[in-house]
Every structure is written in structure tokens, then in C-alpha cells.
Amino acid sequence: MAKSSLSFVCQNCGAAYNRWQGKCDSCGEWNTLAEEDVTGATSVPVSIRSKRKGRQFALESLTGKSQDAPRLSSGMAELDRVTGGGFVRGSVLLVGGDPGIGKSTLLTQATSMMARAGHRAVYISGEEAVAQVRLRAERLGLADAPVQLAAETSVEDIVSTLSEGATPRLIVIDSIQTMWTDTVESAPGTVTQVRASAQALIRFAKKSGAAIILVGHVTKDGQIAGPRVVEHMVDAVLSFEGEGSQHFRILRSMKNRFGPTDEIGVFEMTGLGLREVANPSELFLSERDLGSPGTAVFAGIEGTRPVLVELQALVAPTSLGTPRRAVVGWDPSRLSMVLAVLEAHCGVKLSGHDVYLNVAGGLRIQEPAADLAAAAALVSSLVNAPLPADAVYFGEISLSGAIRPVAQTSARLKEAAKLGFGRAVLPESARGEAGGDSGLALNPVGGLTSLVAEIAARGTPRGNRENSPAEKNATPTRFRRQEG
Predict the structure, then answer these.
(1) What is d(CA 118, CA 283) in angstroms, rounded to the nearest whole number?
(2) In what helix (H) or strand (E) does residue 355 lie, and over which residues does it extend?
(3) Would you say 100 is a known binding-site residue?
(4) Binding site annotation covers 472?
(5) Contact yes or no for 258/89 (Cβ under 8 A)
(6) How far apart are alpha carbons 242 and 249 in whole angstroms?
(7) Residue numbers of motif RadA KNRFG motif (predicted)?
(8) 395 carries a ligand binding annotation
């Protein structure tokens, strides 16, 4: 019988140590080491483990024919877009998201559609009973789908059951934190159990050719819980995002060995489950408040798809010693950089104002091309000057105030023209890439100063406070009209 030994395992990266220490030397995180029982291979002497000689294998060159991996469509176009065209045989996907965001609903629909198409689809639930999953299927109108369902947490029992009969085309494990294997004596959910269970399921997927989807819990920071080594073990990592107050969800690809990364799929949460949104730009702009100061439409790129979304800004005088800076859906550090450039190069004094920035619809923007749209919305709210309703903005702002070009300019302009926009404010150096076939009136901008001056010239006082100190500071000092 193997002798039990104690080891301290990092809950973030999975590194093991003989004694406890405050900081993990492998990943640099603090207070992540937990004591676990480790048996088996770790207690075998090194002299015994190293006796087996390695076998020789053939080496090949880089030249040669390579075939594309065969894929199986899930029946959901948005899910196929994120995965790169469908599920690859023998691949393992890890899906994470906040509790209640709709992960189980999405996977129930995917397995039901594949089962209706004649493929063997299996749903293994480790958190819910069979009756609970059936109730969800009835609510979604999928109770008649021939999905094979079970509530089990033992990895050995799951592999043994799935090995009988025809090989499943799709297997859903909900969730990997509830699985446990006999080869490890740790409790379910620990780093050792999650890593060993994932490894056993991955080995079965590669051997049988079945596609497996692992559902993973997330931490309070939005990161997938458990050891990060699991994300390296799987073939794709998908993140299911969305706000509880919003009615649509975004499936984002964080890693994909068989397709593009940073691709998104958009779904709308309804009473009958998730509905695919073929044109997300139209959804994000469906509730625009035309003619309001502080709103600008940003033409962005998410993966290979152009997406138009509204940026909302509010600049208000503050009575606090330190003004507030709140942002939702965008990087707070980029907002601070844009505010610093506006004050240093454009004369926009925002040190006495609270600044709020929101990406309408709950979309999270990660590309720096939104700098120009954010700056335009901020100045528009500050000087009370509505931006043109038919204009889109995109461009990266440098620390010198210059507008830098961004990628895929033509795709952004085509998407804006398709939705009925008439003009585009873009970097000066991107004029040649844009061409003249987009049908939009182009307004190239070389520096942020010229754009701020154009918006400030259209500014109007708020109410009758023309002589108030707050309204006097609302117009940038560099562009304030001199009174005779």
C-alpha cells in the first residue's frame, strides 16, 4: 500500500512544495498554498521510476500535406463561430462563466440539437439531479431530444459507461470541480483532484475521438477556478459573459487550438432559452438615445466580426476633493490615459469633474481603437454638444495626442454603412486603407486637438447657468471664445 504523504499545493498553478510558505515561487501569488494528501507516484522512489528505457519514435520534417481537422456542427451558428466552425473530434473545451449566467442552458441546447441530428450526445451532471436537468429541458422545449442524461461524479464510472456502445460525439461534464478519481485521495474540487480528473477525461477524449466540454467555476475576479494548468491541458477555453441586468450574453474564445481567438458569439436570453443574434450591432444600438450629449458610436472588431456599440459618458462637477472615475465595460487605465491626454494637450480641465463611462449593452471592449470614441463622448458631455447621430468613431490615441491607425478599417466602415451611418471619424493615416467604396463621408483626424475644437465649437450652455463657474469651466480653455 502506498504511503500517504503531505504536500502543500498551490491553488493557482498547481505547484507542490514540501513545506508551507506564504508566496508561491512558481506563479508569484500569495497565500495560495493548501495542504493536501498525495499518494501514488510521488511516494515511489526515483530509482524505481527511472528504470524503464524510453522507446524510439520517428521524426518528420515541416514539409508535407496537412489535413484540416474534421468538425461537427453543433446546430448553433454562434457557437460554431466561436469554436472555429464546430467541434473537432477528440478535442476538449473548457467553458467558464459566472453562476447563473446560462452555461447549463447553452450546453443543454447544444446537446439537444446534436442529438436531434442523429448523433449520440451525453450530458453528465455533477451538481444537479436528473430531475432538475429534465425540468430545464422541458422549460426550453427540448424534452423530446434523445439526449443521454446521468448524474455522476466518479471519473472511472463515467469513462467505463461511455466506453460501452457507440462512441459519443459530444460529452458535457457539468462541472469539472465536482469530479473525483480513485487515483487521488484529495477531496473533490482541490487542485490535485481537478487536475487528475481533467487528465483522465482528456485521455479518454483523445483515445475515443469524442468531443468533451468541461464546465468550470469562476472566481470573484472572473477567472476560471482551479489550477491554471487545466487551461493549458484543454484545446479551447471559452468564457460566457454577461450582466445580470442585461438580456443578452456573449460567448468569447480565450484560447483555441483549432480556430481564431478573441472571437465572440452573441445570444439573447429569453424565456425559452438562448436565442442566437446574427447581427449584434443592431442589438447593441437598438435603444440609442439620439441627440443626447455624451454618446458616441464606436466601430470595433471582436475577433473577425465588426461590432458597433454605443459609448456613454457623463461629466459632472464634483464637490469631493478627489473626483470619481467610474468605468463599465472598458479598461480603467485607458480611461485615465485619455483623460490625461485631454488635459495635457487639449486644455480640457477635468480635475474638478466626476467622470463616468459606460459601454451600452454590457459588452466588454478590449481593443485600444475605442480611445477616439471615448474621448469624443467625454468632450461632448463636458461641453453639452451632441455628436452627429450618423457618425462612427474609431482610432487609438497616443500619449502625444496623435491619432494612430487601427486594423481592419474597411470592415468597420462596411458594417457602419450597412447599418445606415453616413460618416466616420477615423485616423488620418487610415484614409488610404479605407478607400472610397464604403459609401461613408470620411473625416480623417490627425490629432485629438482638432477633434476637441470641433466638438467644443458646437457646445451650448446647460440651462440658464451661463455665468456660473461650473459652466465657465465646461468649455476647454484653449478653445474658449474670447469676449470683445
Answers:
(1) 33
(2) strand 353-359
(3) yes
(4) no
(5) no
(6) 5
(7) 255-259
(8) no
- Find how far residue 322's CA is from the centre of its chain: 32
pLDDT of the chain along its 484 residues, tens only?
445 566 888 877 778 888 899 998 888 888 888 887 655 444 444 444 455 677 888 888 888 776 666 889 999 999 999 999 999 999 999 999 888 889 999 999 999 999 999 999 999 999 999 999 999 999 999 999 999 999 999 999 999 999 998 999 999 999 898 999 998 888 888 888 888 999 999 999 999 999 999 998 876 666 665 567 788 899 999 999 887 667 888 899 989 998 888 788 999 988 889 999 888 888 788 778 787 899 999 999 988 889 999 999 999 998 888 899 999 989 999 999 999 999 999 999 888 899 999 998 878 898 999 999 999 999 999 999 999 999 999 999 999 999 999 988 999 999 999 999 999 999 998 877 665 566 789 999 999 999 999 999 987 766 544 444 434 444 444 444 444 3
Contact 427, 406 (CB under 8 A): yes
Which phi and psi angles does 238 have, rounded to 5°?
-115, 140
Domains of the chain in sequence order: 6-37 (no CATH), 71-278 (3.40.50.300), 283-458 (3.30.230.10)
Which of these, 185, 194, 170, 146, lies nearest to 42 by C-alpha position?
185
Upstream peptide bond of 175 is cis (omega within 30 degrees of 0): yes
98 labeled binding residue: yes
The answer to whether 102 is annotated as binding is yes
Q: Which helix (H) or strand (E) holds 274?
A: strand 273-276
What HEC string does 283-298 produce? HHCCCCCCCCCCEEEE
327 φ/ψ angles, rounded to the nearest 5 degrees: -140, 140
- Helix ranges, 39-128 (H): 46-49, 77-83, 103-116
- What's the grid cell of residue 410? 474597411
Nearest partner of 259 among 245, 238, 274, judged by Cα: 238
Helix boundaries (H) for 128-236: 130-139, 155-162, 191-208, 229-233
341, amino acid identity: V
Residue 70 assigned ligand-binding role: no
Question: Is this prediction's pTM over 0.85?
Answer: no
Q: Please indicate if the annotation marks 300 as binding a ligand.
A: no
For residue 100, the tally of other CB atoms under 10 A from its CB is 10
